[in-house]
Each structure stands twice: as structure tokens, then as C-alpha cells.
Amino acid sequence: MDPITASFYAAVCGLLAIALPPGLRFAVRFVIGAAVGVVASALLPVLQGALLGAY
Q1: CB atoms < 10 A from the CB of 46, how many?
Q2: Using CA atoms, how far apart are residues 25 and 40, in angstroms rounded to an integer?
Q3: I want to staple 12 with a disulfide (CB 3.0 to 4.6 A). Which of 5, 24, 28, 40 is the partner?
């Protein structure tokens, strides 16, 4: 995994951990995390291209 990908997912997971209340059940937290992961993986190429441009 390249450093850009690792940094992006670290930021997404960190924000997710801050945003989720600790009282939620594990299954709910897992589903939310999985959904965010899918969205993050879909947005990464778009964001990377917008920030770094085509090279």
C-alpha cells in the first residue's frame, strides 16, 4: 500500500472513531465502518487525481 492510500484510510478511520458514540452495538459500528470504507475506497482515486493532478 502506498503512503497516500495509507494516510487516507488512517484519516478516515480516525474520524470515524471520533464520530461514533461508544454506546452503539458492535454490529452497528461494523456496518457503519464498512460503509465508510466502501465510500472512502471509491473516492480515493478522485481525490488523489484532484489533489495531485494527472502525472
Answers
A1: 9
A2: 22
A3: 40
DSSP E strands in 1-55: the ranges are: none
Q: Supply the pTM of this predicted model.
A: 0.58
Report whether 8 contacts 25 (CB < 8 A).
no
Q: Find out whether 30 and 50 touch, Cβ atoms under 8 Å.
A: no
Tell me the pLDDT tens digit for each residue of 5-15: 767 777 787 77
Using left for φ > 0, alpha for ψ between -120 and 50, and beta otherwise, residue 6 falls in alpha
CA distances for 45 relative to 24, 32, 42, 55, angstroms: 31, 21, 7, 13
CA distance 14 to 27: 19
Indicate the average pLDDT of the chain.
76
